[in-house]
From TrEMBL:
Top-rank lineage group of the source organism: Eukaryota
Name of the protein in question: WASH complex subunit 5
Family, similarity comment: Belongs to the strumpellin family.
Region (Disordered) residue spans: 941-973
Amino acid sequence: MSTSSGSDPVRTSLLKLVSRGNAIIAELLRLSEHIPSPFLQQDKDDIKKYGEVIFDFRYLSTAEACDHRVQSRQDLVEAEEELRLNHLERLERFYLAFESIWKYVTDLKTFIENLSNGIYISHTFETVLGDTDGKQLFSEAIYLYGVMLLVLDARIEGVVRERMVIAYYRGKGGVHDLSNVEDVCRLCRNTNFLAGPVPRRPPNYPEEYFARFPLPREVIQMVVGRLRSDDIYNQLKAYPSPEHRSTALATQAAMLYIMLFFVPETLKAEAATMREICDKYFADNWVLSFYMGFTVDLAQQWEPYKAARAALANTINPANVRMLIQRNQQRLADLSAELRRYLTEGVLVEDYVLDNIPALMQCLRNCNSTLRWLMLHLTTKQKRIGDELAGTFPRKAVLTFFVDTAQFEFVLKTLFQALLAGKRDRWDKLKAQCTDRMTELAEYFGGERNLSRVTKNEELEQWFRRISTEIGSLDYADATSVGRKIQQLVVALEEVEQFHQIEGSIQIKQFLADTRAALTQMIRTVHVQEAVVVNITLIADMSYAWEISTEYIPLMQEIIREKASVVLRLRAAFLKLASVLDFPLVRIMQAQSDDQESVAQYYSSKLVDFVRHVLEIVPVSVFTILNDVIDIQTNKLKELEARISKDQLREVAQLELRGQLAAATHQISVFTEGILAMQTTLLGIIQVDPRQLLEDGVRKELVRQITFAMHNALYFPAHRVQDFEMRLQSLAQRLDGFKRSFEYIQDYISLYGLKIWQEELSRIMNYSIERECNQFLKIKVSDDQSEYQSTAVPIPSYPPQDERDISRNFVGRLTRELLELSQPRRAFYSHYLSAWFDLQQRSELVGIKAVGLVHKAVGVFGLCGVDRLLGFMVATHLNNFVKVYRAEVDRALAPQLADTVRELLPLHGTPPAAVHARIAAAADKRLQRLWPAFLGPPPAAGCSTPSEGPRATGHGGLGGRDARSAGALPPTATDPLTITHHHPRGAAEFVMKIGQCQLLRRLLQNELNFTARLDSGVLACTLENFNASLLKDIRAHYRNPEKRPYPSEENPLLSELAKYLDAAGMGEPFDRIYIATDPLPSLDFVAFLFVQQYALPRLALDPSVGHLLLARQPGKEPIDGIPLVVGMATLLRQFHASQLQGFLEYLGQYLRVATEGQREALAQAMKEGRPAELDGETRALLHFAEDFCRFGHLPRQALDAVIPAFLFDSFRS
């Protein structure tokens, strides 16, 4: 049953099983890093929102009660639906991983039963365990099952597993879809074990956990017996010295540690067995790595077991521990000195290495054995021993030893690989030299070649020809026999020098000496075997340090900071760590499993992340120095004038400052040259380019600096315009200085600074707006789904600045501050000046100046981000309005409103004033509960009031979609603006808020358009013309769809053009369709009634500001007229065009009714050419109608068709 034989069914079954086991563990490790946050229940918002819809296994006994409680509350139904939509796909992957463990143990038990029952002909447990491959694979199959259980419990807490399994169970609709759910529940049931710096270990753990799906005790005992007695991996060949036995048998020791939990009676009562195990495997160590760096302290883990504790007592005896510490201390000193000697330049050359292979290999074994002992035992959980070890072995000394060992291995391995690669060519070259020399000497003694005067000697001539023939016949394929022949030839060449004719000739003796040297080189060459490289690879294994190595990252960064050139030596350390990939992948590759790529990708990516983490100290140091460069260039260094007088030259030159700038620049270049000098390295299956590592590190630190500056600057606790402007100016100055300094150093770090700056600033803004807009989406986009988030260059997230802050980041705070400064309770909007002004002082609050400051602070990307966020807010307000309207009107009022509307028909008529008033008053009484959905009460100070609802919990955003995609937002979207019809909440929900957002959007669009035309006029004109031509094509399509087809859904033309148009400020927010919903009954009449009965009594005309509608009446709710008009127009535009027309017709009918009694007076006034006297309500309504047409982009004819033109003439006069 050899490894190379694929036909043996036992080997094939075991190999596939072991391959699956390693893949399952990799999947568990991968998934443990992506547990959905609601199931961790660590965030108070998650607990508040999802706490009542996430259940553990107690749900299974109270399922009906839990389901009834959820279904009885609409908010819980929506929370559960959101949880399902956002996390069900990932929960399914977790469930499949849990189920795969159960399937693994089921298949393992089936294999054991089949083997026991003789299904595999000619195979029994004895034959399998007697075969080299069989005992390896069978032991690994059982061992990996135990590892799965421990990794599952260590990385995914028991209660979290229960929550995810139940959430998936409920999301899939019950047990009918999940045939193995009971077994998965039994496997995943909480063990009450809690991993951490101080683990909480329940009684009888983990043996009770392992017993949930037990394996046959007799089989485990047989495997344990084989592990106790055999070296199943033949590692003692690579470690022949007795002092290295524990290192050679470390893999078997890990297997025994796991398997003994399947037979806990051995740990508890079998003292002799445990003594034998400890004497063989743990005589000089008590900390081991049981899988890929998961370490355990046996003194702590075996404490509950009497036999195991007693057997280990000799090892952890204070005297023995002290002896081990002293021995390894001496080894560390001696080996460090030996490594320094070997690593001295010019020592490890080819000849020296070939002459000293045994000594070098012994040094390598000693170094790796000592390094393993040090790194593992420095993690001991016993405080007394741990303190003693930490005092004796400083981690920095251990790290230096690790780096030197890695460099020594790297040099040796590289040299041997080069020798192996050129072995044939080197052999042929040396053999040719030897045969040529012997041929020359034969010719010389035959008289055919004159070296000097010599008598012809036929015997020597024939002898040298025979030697030449023998050398030419040497074949290095048989190293043993060819080595003996060469030795005989060397002796013969030494003896021939005794001949008188040769002894007296210096030239001949030199020929013979060179030939002997070449023959010696041939012996060395033939002894260079692949086994040497294989042994180096085995000895250099670092799988035990997969997790431990992260503890040494700060020390690695410290030595890099002290000396940047040490990065070149760390490359060898990184390559040594790459050996950890061999452990999980070897069986997967042998089985030719499809999991090979995913498992290799996971471990390789983790290794690359480790390298990035270590080397990120370089860009961090660069940016620390860059802060001084920024300070010098921004605050200290003055710009040179065009003309400088001779007397002022020294003062203007600012030599001291320029000297400081040059010194800082030199420091930056020194830090980066170490990484740039590294060679491209293959870590696992990922090719690591040092230049790319440097660029990623610089990008990461740049992103951190920019986001941190924006996070701190864009926070507005005072809600005052002076503070707002000051913070924006400060941020703009900071980022401008940062940008200029970054451009200054780009040549010294060999990177394109401005390109990196633009790309990362764009990514930061897009990601931030994604996260902020995520609050308005029911199906959220997580970080790993976002096209803007990156593993190599992550964009950091910061906690809220205060408890009232509902924004996810600075973009949300900036947007909400613009909304706060333009609130109706403190400001009014001037259409003519495109700005909001303070109600009392009439000073500008938000206008062109404020938007310009925003532009300087956050750039075009920031302006686009705020614009998109406002678009999502508009969509959410509209959806919430529709939700409330349906709740209030659809239930009972729709038929009554239909009857009321019929009484007013035809709309072009003029019913009696009393009848119209009676109908309107009756309808107004029925709709009192609906009016807050149009307007609502004033909010508390700021935009982060409780009235704005709970904060959403998702991460990520819109994946690059523009604000128009908010039209797909479902009416039931849960977000910070969601309301219920029972308790209408603040003005953030309502129509006037829609108008406020729309006006802000237009202000931002104007700034973007101006910037586009100023900075890129050609692009702006191209976009404008392209858009116009495309609109013509679309209109032509609707006139003749068959001949002019519409672009297909796969065609990106329209969506990509829309992005450009939005970025260039060419999108008209007032014309946008934000939502798609079914018609609302009688919406046009209800909207008219709101304006006539509810809004107009609260509005007045203020001639001092150009006849704008303002909330000026004492005791009335604050209403800003223009935002109200814009909001109403936007609301009605979301529905069929008949709603806009109907609204105008109701307005016209009311105005005709209101002016019917003044007809004669108006006619007389017009006849006499004097102003007509209209009451205030009529004048306000006329003004409203005119503004409605202006901001709704309706033609004047639409207004004149329903309202007599002479009324507007009278109104304007």
